[in-house]
Amino acid sequence: MENHPGGIYLSQDESLGIFVAHEFHIAAGNIIDKVLAGAPIAGPQPDRDVLRHLSKIVGKPTAQQDENGPPVVLSHVEALHFEAIMAQFRLRDYLPGRIKRVCPVDGTMAIEDPVYLAQRAEHIQREYDRNIFINNVTAQQRINSGHTVEGLARMFLAPQKPSLDIVCPGCGGTKYDRFRVTFCPECQNRREEFLLVECPDCDHDFVASVREHIWTTGAIALQSFNVSYKYSAVINAVRDLDGYARDRQINHLLGQITADTGIFHVARCRLIDNRRRDTLLLLTTDGICWSSKRLGFFTEDGSLQWEQVASVSENSNGGDDFRLALPDGRTITFSSFTGNEKALSIGIPDDIEL
Ligand SMILES: [Zn+2]
Ligand SMILES: [Zn+2]
Q1: Is the domain of 289 the same as that of 216?
Q2: How far away, in angstroms, is 178 Cα from ligand 1 center?
Q3: Same structural domain, 79 and 208
């Protein structure tokens, strides 16, 4: 599956920005689509033309993007709409999350705390595991003391697992419709709307309460996107070269990348100093780094800054080897390259010859 760098948005004067990681970018697109489809809103109704315009951009990977954008520059009114969408993620984090449970047969309603429900399920499972254990010990003890039939019967008739179902007091049913709800921090009224902008009961401004967590400076947003873009390009190149690359290997390569790193290419070789090591290499403007697959105890990860390398020679034995000489005379040779190396050429300064 291809890795995407996410989206980058700037305010009209480009002083403020939002970098949106891919998962949130997709989720934000879904929120806009749901609002356009009529999901209920707490507060003033958004301008649907503005939302329709945003829905064409948000959540979609932009074509012709490079590591410097181009960012989407939002008009003032677009920025207000977009921040209301992005605010929903923050609000979900900090407002209490509850589930409204409604019986479809008789309309009986209750509010559930999903955290409590998870704890209850865990508690029931633990009790059950304990009962099974005690039952087995008792059964074994009966068998050992000569009551074989009773013991075996006990073992096979293990206690039944208790049901997690909640029985409706009105109709005895166990099927419900469930909706996410929360509570206004100012008037404490329950809010059932999908999009929280302003509390209809007390005018509490939900979006303003998290605004400082949404925007950064335009420069920081661009830098975050720049790094994310390089990460995505390297991850995609690595997966192309080696469908079974380990996360640990990829993380080692990504660890070398900053906003200032220019990326030449990613390659894969089978030998380091003639020892078998299935290795991924990343060549950047700063240096070279490599990470091998773990073979037994051997893991061969490393990196060298170019200033630590005395010389580089290629194909010295007429093969495809690539040898780095260190100032102290040691060398390290990578050879038996496999697959086509993936030239990325991201963020290479103009004065560097390839
Ligand atoms: Zn019911
Ligand atoms: Zn309120």
Answers
A1: no
A2: 13
A3: yes
Quote the pTM value. 0.77
199 CA distance to ligand 2 middle (Å)? 5
Neighbours of ion ligand 1 (CB under 5 A): 103, 105-106, 108, 168, 170-171, 173
Q: Let me know whether 37 and 82 are in one domain.
A: yes
Query: Of the spans 164-173, 188-197, 269-278, 319-328, which averages the highest pLDDT?
Result: 188-197
- Of the three residues 132, 155, 173, the one that is the final residue of a domain is 173
Domain extent at residue 137: 108-173
How many angstroms is it from 200 CA to the middle of ligand 2? 7
* Count: domains in the chain: 3
Residue 193 within any structural domain of the chain: no
pLDDT digits (tens, 9 = 90+) for 113-129: 988 888 988 898 898 88
State the distance from the centre of ligand 2 to the C-alpha of 50, rounded, in angstroms: 26
Write the secondary structure of the chain as one string of H (helix), E (strand) and C (coil).
Answer: CCCCCCEEEECCCCCEEEEECHHHHHHHHHHHHHHHCCCCEECCCCCHHHHHHHHHHCCCCCCCCECCECCEECCHHHHHHHHHHHHHHHHHHHCCCEEEEECCCCCCEEEECHHHHHHHHHHHHHHHHHHHHHHHHHHHHHHHCCCHHHHHHHHHCCCCCCCCCCCCCCCCCCCCEEEEEEECCCCCCEECCCEECECCCCCCEHHHHHHHHHCEEHHHHHHHHHHHHHHHHHHHHHHHHCCCCCHHHHHHHHCCCCCCCCEEEEEEEEEECCEEEEEEEEEECCEEEEEECCECCECCEEEEEHHHCCEEEECCCCCCCEEEECCCCCEEEEEEECCCCEEEEECCCCCCCC
Q: How far is the CA of 179 from the centre of ligand 1 (A)?
A: 16
Protein residues with C-beta less than 5 angstroms from the ion ligand 2: 184, 186-187, 199, 201-202, 204
Same domain, 269 and 217: no
